[in-house]
Amino acid sequence: MHLPDVNGHFGSYGGRFVPETLMPALEEIEKAYREAKEDALFIKELNYYFEQYAGRPTPLYFAANLTKYLGGARIYLKREDLNHTGSHKLNNALGQALLARRMGKKRVIAETGAGQHGVAAATAAALLGMECVVYMGEEDTHRQALNVFRMELLGAKVIPVTAGSRTLKDAVNEALRDWVTNVETTHYLIGSVVGPHPYPMIVRDFQAVIGQETRRQILEETGRLPDHLFACVGGGSNAMGLFYPFIQDDGVKMWGAEAAGLGITTGRHAASLTAGRPGVFQGAYSYVIQDEDGQIEPVYSISAGLDYPGVGPEHSYLKDTGRAVYTAISDFEALEAFQLLSRTEGIIPALESAHAVALAMKIVPGLSPEEIVVINISGRGDKDVEQVQRVLRKGEKIRGS
Question: PROSITE patterns in the record, alphabetically (predicted)?
Fold first, then answer.
């Protein structure tokens, strides 16, 4: 069955829960997207920028040292960290910026947590000559100061959000308020597979280039499909991008790594699928971390990009149907993986990606040498090095209870 359905539902998840003023804009975006993806010239231009500007296809690298260290299956790394701007985020940013220009919009707004989506949106806007405003939680502007400077260099205006927990959730709220006010002139360039229909579908489709390339590359390299896919899940865009082209292949197991933060039992985590329950949040019905009254609870992760109380609705569907398995990874485990991949392969991953590596570290030693594993390295860790250095030198308490 092809999902979402005509109403934007993945099973019981997804849909549109927005103010009436935004409905025409969402309908305009859906119509424009459905026309664009059937337009050979649009696809040709998108592929041109993927190849000549972003540097696609990204490599699928056989991690011989990590394979030897962990034992078990052969491990391949999908190197989205080598994409221009340093993460998978540019795939979607280029696609939506081209779509916005096609709709006649001259201004884009975006939200960002780790800064990678903000940098990607600012980059795409600069490329296409568009005004760009990025909302970022004040807490995240401190954690990711380098990316704030990169966005400003690219010509974007970064607005720190001081409301709430001053993280990604609050940045999304502010971006939505801006969009409601300026919907006639502005495209909201959402950075993950979240929000009201058609965003989860559009972002997934632009990110599916990750899985499409992986499928082709692993067949060329090994002659068969992988047995296991690993990716981190905050909103879930890099994971959906990797998973989507393999969903019909029942022999390919899909693993998502959520942020357990200081430990699920501490309440300081961001594991929506592991410890949340279904509810409406920021325009869609999906798993959400909420209290008994349905109020969104504060979340925490050492990784700014995973520090979000919701998840894309298609992930909720994959969880309930059992097609994908989601496991929470603590800050401590992610930091161990961050250091291990750096030492064994000379690749410093983003803290987000380190969660996927950490989950693979738990599963791979129990697999056979004939099995094949792909881990999506969704971004590079330059942005996180100072934060990790500070945590490790101070010996801050990070082990989950």
Answer: TRP_SYNTHASE_BETA
Q: Write down which residue in 152, 181, 199 finishes a domain.
A: 199
* Side-chain-facing half-sphere of 267: CA atoms under 13 Å: 5
Rounded CA-CA distance 201/197 in Å is: 7
H-run or E-run covering 1: none
Q: What is the CATH number of the domain that holds 369?
A: 3.40.50.1100
Side chain identity at residue 166, one-letter code: R
46 and 73: one domain? no
Contacts with 149 (C-beta within 8 Å, 6 or more apart), sequence order = none
Residues with a catalytic annotation lie at 89, 111, 378
Beta strand segments in 144-193, E: 157-161, 186-188
CA gap 51, 58 in Å, rounded: 9
Looking at the fold, whether 74 and 104 belong to one and the same domain comes out as no
Count of CB atoms situated within 10 Å of the CB of 86: 23
- Quick count: other Cβ atoms within 10 Å of Cβ 163? 12
Asked if residue 57 has a cis previous peptide bond (ω within 30° of 0), the answer is yes
For residues 135 and 161, what is the distance between their CA atoms, to the nearest angstrom? 7
Do the Cβ atoms of 332 and 398 come closer than 8 Å? yes
Q: Kindly list the strands in the beta sheet with 107-112, ordered across the sheet, starting from the edge strand earlier in the chain.
A: 157-161, 131-137, 107-112, 186-188
pLDDT in tens, 33-72: 999 999 999 999 999 999 999 999 999 999 999 999 999 9
User: For 276-329, what is each residue's pLDDT tens digit?
Assistant: 999 999 999 999 999 999 999 999 999 988 989 999 999 999 999 999 999 999
The SS3 of residue 256 is: strand
Q: How many domains does the chain have?
A: 2
Total-model pTM = 0.95
Q: Compute CA 114 distance to the chain's CA centroid, rounded to the nearest angstrom.
A: 10
Pairing of strands 131-137, 253-261: unpaired
Residues 170 and 249 in one domain: no
Residue 316 lies in a domain: yes
Which residue range(s) make up the domain with 133? 9-51+88-199
Which of 199, 228, 261 finishes a domain? Answer: 199
In a domain, 213, yes or no: yes
- Is 2 within a domain? no
Please count the other Cβ atoms lying within 10 Å of the Cβ belonging to residue 365.
Answer: 12
Span between the terminal Cα atoms of the chain, in Å:
42
